[in-house]
Specification:
single chain, alpha/beta, Zincin-like, three-stranded mixed sheet, 6 helices, 12 strands, 26% strand
Length: 227
């Protein structure tokens, strides 16, 4: 735990051989400390102490944003921007089916219903995200060399220099417009592997209201990562 004034905040230290500088990321659940693999622990601790003021403010903003975004209640789940009510029923076998605005979960006694819901979302994400990515790839005239789902805790997508694109399965909770923005963002990296003005022009060509969709996704993002 990291002590920020009167608040104890969970933290994770992530070292990487590729990283060259120290850095911090604040999520809805924890503070992440990024460091080159060779950096001494004492140097990392000094860096974090110097950043305490910023960390406290960033953590407070993140918690306020999460509260405003309003994560679904325990008896609800988001799917393509719509809130579905969970209807959990006892059963000898596990099964999850959608009925209009309800997600009906048949589960044996003691089964983890939340895990069944996540599995249901992942299954739908694999087909749906691949479909939206392929749809925009046709518009670009290029396609990724490989596509896979991601389970990242802070990123919606990624694209490597080899053209491998990953999209976070949690995106399936968001409206199609926001999914298309992330797909366009990552596909634009097939042309420009940076965030230069040319890159953003390419994103805009694939998704004309990209900046608005990006802002909306940021607003709701914290709640979607809680699943």
């Amino acid at each position: 735990m990291l002590q920020l004034g009167a608040i104890a905040v969970p933290f994770a230290l992530k070292r990487s051989r590729r990283r060259r500088t120290l850095g911090l990321t604040v999520t809805a659940r924890e503070v992440r400390i990024h460091a080159p693999s060779w950096t001494p622990r004492a140097e990392i601790e000094r860096y974090v102490v110097l950043q305490h003021g910023w960390l406290a403010r960033a953590w407070a903003r993140m918690q306020a944003r999460t509260s405003r975004a309003g994560a679904p209640a325990a008896n609800e789940v988001r799917y393509l921007g719509r809130v579905l009510a969970l209807d959990i029923r006892p059963s000898l076998f596990s099964e999850v089916r959608r009925h209009g605005g309800t997600l009906r979960i048949h589960a044996p006694h003691g089964a983890d219903a939340a895990s069944l819901v996540r599995d249901w979302l992942r299954i739908r994400a694999e087909r749906l995200l691949a479909w939206r990515l392929a749809r925009i790839a046709r518009k670009l005239g290029r396609r990724p060399s490989r596509f896979a789902l991601s389970n990242a805790q802070t990123q919606w997508g990624s694209c490597t220099r080899h053209g491998h694109i990953r999209l976070n399965w949690r995106l399936v909770q968001a409206p199609l417009a926001h999914i298309d923005y992330v797909a366009a963002h990552e596909l634009a990296h097939l042309v420009h592997l940076d965030h230069s003005p040319r890159f953003w022009a390419q994103v805009a060509a694939l998704c004309p209201d990209a900046l608005a969709r990006r802002a909306e996704l940021r607003t709701m993002g914290a709640s979607l990562f809680q699943v």
